[in-house]
Amino acid sequence: MSLFMSGSQDINKISRRSLLNKMCVGFGGLAFNSLISNAFSKADHYRFPNVRARAKRIIFLFMHGGPSHVDLFDYKPELYSHNGKALPFAERKVQFADRGNIFAPPWSFRQVGDCGHWMSELWKHLPEVADDLCILNSLCETNVSHGGACMKLHTGDEALLRPSMGSWISYGLGSENKNLPSFVTICPTSLHGGVNNFGSAFLPARHQGVPLGAPGYPNTSGKDAKFHYMKNLSSGGVEQRLQIDLLRKLNQESEIKNDLLDARINSFELAFRMQMAAPEVTDLSQESKLTRELYGMDGSETDNFARQCLLARRLAEKGVRFIQVSHANSLPFNNEQWDQHSHLEKGHSINVQQIDKPITGLIKDLKARGLLEDTLVLWGGEFGRTPTAQKGNNAIGRDHHPDGFTMWMAGGGVRPGFKYGSTDEFGYHAVEDRMTIHDLHATILHLMGIDHTDLTYNHNGRDFRLTDVHGNIAQNIIS
Q1: Are residues 249 and 326 in the same domain?
Q2: Domain enclosing residue 22, as ranges
């Protein structure tokens, strides 16, 4: 009552205009309080999980180009019995290249582990950790081109510029280590979306992926992987600290607040702290000979990817939230990644040989250190390959295939030794427990303790999220 009464003034004698004048501070205060509340909510709400988290971090092993599910993990006896015959149904209308008849895998399959996962004979080491894998045989999407499919896998949208999956997770959970980025991409590929595949788009710039090393070819990239511009040759540590403090003070005292400048200063802060932390975490010489051998760091064809996987484990240990490792090696004369439109037998043989031991070593090492329990390992590419041969190739290969393909997970709260979903008898369409990329993203966020419908960011007058208006959690794969 004292808010709008002065002295002995009676409430019954106050005019409406006087009442509103006296009350405006109260109404304004309420409105201001609401605005402040919303502002802090937007800034801080996503720093903490809102569902039970099974995983604290992710290591995404990205197989750029599209590994063939029917040659690696999705055993289809009908492909052998119908080799050379036409498919008994019409193929998709939108194709990347002309397709021919059914092409049986050049390799045999066998069941491995106590769980009985089917794996191609190409895999020599991965069967050793088969009982830790949750194989997803029912991924499906629509885009048949690398660019659109890569963007969809990484950002949730195949055409428009959106924040990447790692950036969303960084925004949602932050980093466990203030001296390292929350999102690191090791030897990222430069094709089919390039930096947009690990960019932050309209999210604050601190959430974008920080590249460690150059794109995944030539084979020396893993050996040379390092954070660039880590040393300031003109200024020492004390001088750098003073410079950054002065910049921040000037920005704080300015009447015009500049979010971009604030983000740039934050990046300077992180770079300053990384000068001490990053060299240690990237120094693989600290690893024992036994560990290096476990990953395949022996100078052979496995050495490059072994270094990348070992770097991933070291970053995971130090609290980096999202680590991507990209495999882009293939035939030395065409750099096709896993994109074998021709020379499938030779190309996939080389690719599997390069990654088989390093990936197996990574899972064994994470498990031995107690990290696999809360580290989600994700393996896969932007799509699979057709069960038919590509038309017109003497050196037989397969076309792009988004209608049904395989990815797998390990650790991080997923059911070990479990097979989820299936394709039809020819490995063409995902028919059981179909999992779109939006479903994959929703499931990953759930495992990380985030409700995908709640992780939003307001931009240009609307709320955006990684899964857009889609996404169903694959509850059956969660342990």
Answers
A1: no
A2: 1-47
* Other CB atoms within 10 Å distance of the CB of residue 81: 10
Neighbours of 200 (CB within 10 A): 22
CB-CB contact of 99 with 386 (8 Å) = yes
Task: Tally Cβ neighbours within 10 Å of residue 298.
Answer: 12
DSSP secondary structure letter of residue 29: H
* Contact predicate 222/187, CB 8 Å: yes
Mean pLDDT on 91-106 = 91
Question: Among 139-143, 195-199, 228-232, 304-308, which is the least confidently predicted range?
Answer: 228-232
Look up the pTM and report it.
Answer: 0.83
Same domain, residue pair 274 and 291: no
Question: Looking at the structure, do residues 396 and 447 belong to the same domain, yes or no?
Answer: yes
pLDDT 10s digits, 105-124: 999 999 999 999 999 999 99
Q: Which residue has the tokens 């402040």?
A: 36
- Cβ(105)–Cβ(70) under 8 Å? yes
End-to-end CA distance of the chain: 58
Task: Give the model confidence (pLDDT) of 338-375 as tens digits.
Answer: 999 999 999 999 999 999 999 999 999 999 999 999 99
Domains of the chain: total: 3
